[in-house]
Amino acid sequence: MASYASSSLVLFVAAAMVAAATVFVASPVAAHFPAGLPEPPFPNPWSAFQNLSGCHMGDERDGLARLKGYLSHFGYLPSAPSSSPFTDAFDADLEAAIATYQRNFGLDATGALDPSTVSQMVAPRCGVADVINGTSSMDRNSSSSHGRHLYTYFPGGPMWPPFRRDLTYALTATSATSIDRATLSAVFARAFARWSDATTLRFAEAAPGADADITIGFYAGDHGDGEGFDGPLGTLAHAFSPTDGRFHLDAAEAWTVGDSASSSSGAVDLESVAVHEIGHLLGLGHSSVQGSIMYPTIRTGTRKVELETDDVQGIQSLYGTNPDFKGVAPTSPSTSSRETDSSAAAYSRPVVSGFVGAVVAVGLLLLLPL
Ligand SMILES: [Zn+2]
Ligand SMILES: [Zn+2]
Questions:
Q1: Helix or strand (DSSP H, E) at 4
Q2: CA of 214 to the centre of ligand 1 (A)
Q3: What average pLDDT does the segment 181-200 reach?
């Protein structure tokens, strides 16, 4: 009996070691987290939402008011009048807002705060709203005469006019980042080239001091446009619709450039976010296609800089096709599976309250005081 028991113990320990080893094999990079689980506790303005997992219609729970603020910021709920702030009651309006969010992100539209929905909500993202003026800009059932598509525009379809196909950009606020100027210039040049490769648009960095069509800057916290940044993660950046030209990045992010992106927890790849925000500057809204550049969230430690078919169709329908365009690069299976993970980080969102058509904040930064 004793030897049997000890053999069992040995077997159990061996099995546990195999299981532990399997976990390590499945997640070889320390900065990447198991699919479907919330990201670990480095600072994240939305991490308290994880306490709301399991909430559903009829519940009352501390923190639901703040979640309503989040959903309002990204366009899923109207903003609360100052005379009647959001409450912690899980009501029908919240259920409907969550269901719309779930449809936009390819989740089961249950209207309840299931773990996969909460995991998606806490992912870093663009500050631009997903739903603008009550219209779900990510409506998965949208279609056109060319068939079903998922790319979107800002309300009214603002774009750069036909006589403006050569656009200039300038790095106007870089004192809040430690990345050197030459590196920044190279990163943004590559990011703009992704879009000029596919279209008739051309971009050039403006000479120092010259006026530019597009201005790019790093800012911390409130910076004068009503879309203050929220520190590490949460909202990462935002940009405005044509022909505003403003593109703001959260200076508090652990921005990384190139291959260093996957090396540390909380690191956000600058070039990936830049390609996304430029899409907003040119008139694209958010897409429900998870592998697309215009998907609202991006996973930390992930590099995603190649336009996907949905991005290309969207931008070419606005600006035409570059005759030299070589087409969309095939997506590698590993990239696809990684980007399908719903715990990906999202960009910050820029839905600008009171915007008048022209302002399509794209990566909305969360302003929520979490
Ligand atoms: Zn801003
Ligand atoms: Zn965005």
A1: helix 2-26
A2: 13
A3: 97
Active site amino acids = 277
Mean pLDDT of the chain: 80
The mean pLDDT of 233-247, rounded to a whole number, is: 97
Task: State pLDDT tens for residues 176-189.
Answer: 999 999 999 999 99
Ligand nearest to the CA of 367: 1
In degrees, rounded to 5, the angle at the alpha carbon of residue 361 between the alpha carbons of residues 83 and 35 is 95
CATH 1.10.101.10 describes domain 47-122: yes
If you measure from the C-alpha of residue 195 to the centroid of ligand 2, how many angstroms do you get, rounded to a whole number? Answer: 15
Can you list the positions of beta strands (E) in 29-185? 131-132, 135-136, 143-144, 147-148, 166-173
Answer whether 0.85 is exceeded by the pTM.
Answer: no
Between 3.40.50.300, 3.40.50.10540, 3.10.450.50, 3.40.390.10, what CATH number should domain 143-340 receive?
Answer: 3.40.390.10
At residue 149, the pLDDT reads 72
